[in-house]
Amino acid sequence: MSYKLYNYDPSSGVAIPAAALFGLATVIHIVQMIRTRSWYMIPFTIGGVFEAIGYLCRYINATETPNWQITPYIGQSLLILLAPALFAASIYMILGRLIVAVNASSNSIIRPSWLTKIFVIGDVLSFLMQCGGGGFLASAKTQDKVDMGEHMILGGLFVQVFFFGFFIIVSIIFHRRMLASPMNYVGICHIPWARCMNVLYTVSCLIMIRSIYRVIEYVQGSGGYLQSKEAFVYVFDAALMCACCIVLVVLHPSKILAEQGKQYQKTEDLEMLTNRYEAGRNYDVLS
What we know:
Blueprint: H1 12-36, H2 42-62, H3 70-101, H4 112-138, H5 143-180, H6 193-220, H7 231-250, H8 254-257, H9 260-286
Helix pairs in contact: 1-2, 1-7, 2-3, 3-4, 3-5, 3-6, 3-9, 4-5, 5-6, 6-7
Organism: Talaromyces stipitatus (strain ATCC 10500 / CBS 375.48 / QM 6759 / NRRL 1006) (Penicillium stipitatum)
Keywords: Membrane, Transmembrane, Transmembrane helix
InterPro entries: RTA1 (IPR007568)
């Protein structure tokens, strides 16, 4: 049994606007990243490039219907599938830098020095599994090989959902501990950390919903309902990931984390002055 690349005729009229939106958002992210030197956004920016090229490849395939070429198909299949893993890598790093910026390592159940490493390692593992499965699936000629590729992708998606779910739990615990802190951390009043957390929750939920959709899609398999309708790709993948890009364009993390070094120094100065004040009071009492 031969494998059919698409179970529908892909639409060129939707693919081009999707590619354009991702391309525009990515250009803005590149400008913001360079201007603010927020290099932790490099994976996110690469993910945006993946999305834009992926939907451009999808447009190329749409113009070839029904004689689809394998190269654009492989491009759209892999790039659209893998982009959210790159988005997630930057999101992990944003939380780590936020924790350091507000000098609140004690409120995190994972030390900031380990937080980014743990989640990025999980992200890389998920990326490689999905990449391998996507490559295998794209070159499949029989249903057996299609099934094997889908199982590899499904395993990678499960890894992604697991680590991302754990990341959300870590974020919520950190947020709750910050709110429960007696003085809400003196010295960080100029860092709107709560707003940053809300931004992280928003983009995390978007990526999680998309990942769950992909899990269900590959559980159903190539003959499933989700893979038989192109609309699902745009509603539960393209639209959600585009929203993720737009949210971080409007509320770019550099607007908060750019103050990290300066705020760190302010916090240290405040602690030093507080210690001197307490030492002076103790001396007066003793004398």
